[in-house]
Amino acid sequence: MADLYIYYQVREADTASLHGAVTAMQAGLASACGTPPQLKRRPQAKDGLQTWMEVYPAVPDGFEAALAAAVQQSGLLPLTAGPRHTEVFTDFNSCV
Question: Mind telling me which InterPro entries this protein's record contains (predicted)?
């Protein structure tokens, strides 16, 4: 299993709208996929932008496709300032 970390920037003026879109999307994903999401942001803004991060721990196979579809349906992309960046991490296995 892998953990997904997705980070992006949002204009401070759009934070309330984006928060609503992301939390609704994450609630739907949690219900459908059983993945407990997290939403985080850096504590300070820079040049009127905040950096946000969605965290999806221990996602099942096929989750990335479900997430991509949910993002498209959520309407959150116009509220982000630039692209969403995805990082994938797996547990360290010292036997490898």
Answer: DUF4936 (IPR032556)
